Amino acid sequence: MTPDLMQEGAQRLTDYQARQQALVATESGGRSASMARPVVAGEVDVTHGRILYLEDVHVSFDGFKAINGLNLDIAPGELRCIIGPNGAGKTTMMDIITGKTRPDSGTVYFGSTIDLLRYKEPEIAAMGIGRKFQKPTVFEELSVFENLELALKTHKGLAASMLFKLSGTQNDRIAEVLHTIHLAGSVTRQAGLLSHGQKQWLEIGMLLVQEPKLLLLDEPVAGMTDEETVRTAELFLTLKGKHSLMVVEHDMSFIDTISEKVTVLCDGSVLAEGTLAEVQADERVIEVYLGR
Ligand SMILES: Nc1ncnc2c1ncn2[C@@H]1O[C@H](COP(=O)(O)OP(=O)(O)O)[C@@H](O)[C@H]1O
Ligand SMILES: [Mg+2]
Hints:
Layout (H helix, E strand, L loop, with lengths): L2 H23 L5 H5 L16 E10 L2 E11 L4 E5 L6 H8 L7 E6 L3 E2 L5 H7 L1 E4 L11 H13 L11 H13 L15 H13 L5 E5 L7 H14 L4 E5 L3 H7 L2 E6 L2 E6 L1 H5 L2 H8 L2
Parallel strand pairs: 3-8, 3-9, 6-7, 7-8
Antiparallel strand pairs: 1-2, 1-4, 4-5, 9-10
The structure holds adenosine-5'-diphosphate (ADP) and magnesium ion.
Magnesium ion binds next to helix 3.
């Protein structure tokens, strides 16, 4: 990097830190006001009470039915937990929603008007469906701030993005996200030096700066310490309402803390749906999943 660029980077950080302090000092106008914003339709029509709708979806891989008549309905602002044995089709379901895998048949709608099967993966991401894969994929050599900045600029499609200065609103968004993901004290820290849990939060932050309407999280607490898991549960509870979330997890105490409605997937379709207590009491669920 040239000295000019480095200086610009340092200046941006100073600007950002000043903004961050102003933001924390503002009682209602700053973070809390924008954080409390409910899921807004935007281009997504949620007037029918659903942000995501899957009906009778089928996918086969070499004759093996990975997804077999899957139906799913997620409300705006809902936090839906998905559980089920390995191979149930949980990750494949996320692949379908995000356009990574094309189903053989079925319906997949974002809101009541957007037919996701007509769009490609990057278009679906740009519409506001963010996905967190199992392994953290942050840029290890960049700082926490730079990772968030890059995610924001990449999302905005700014060409030669390192040369662009963030607007005040964008800086505010980063500051807000840093608080949400508990990394406000590690702004300049190199991402590679963060703990596994912090890297996961940073990656969630990289999605949040893009203001996704729907977030898909695949086994987000796998490999986390107990304390990190508890903090992740708190994080998800703060996201609920502002975003719609679909969380795939095996950690039952984590699910118990965050869940309202739980969907049990098995053999590519829904086996049971209800509160965690309800599905845990379901004989079929015990047989295929919990009892093992
Ligand atoms: N691209 C693929 N090619 C072939 N088989 C696949 C592919 N993706 C997933 N599968 C198979 O589909 C089934 C469902 O997998 P997956 O969605 O990863 O389950 P889960 O996430 O619930 O553990 C598994 O049997 C898996 O081996
Ligand atoms: Mg999986």
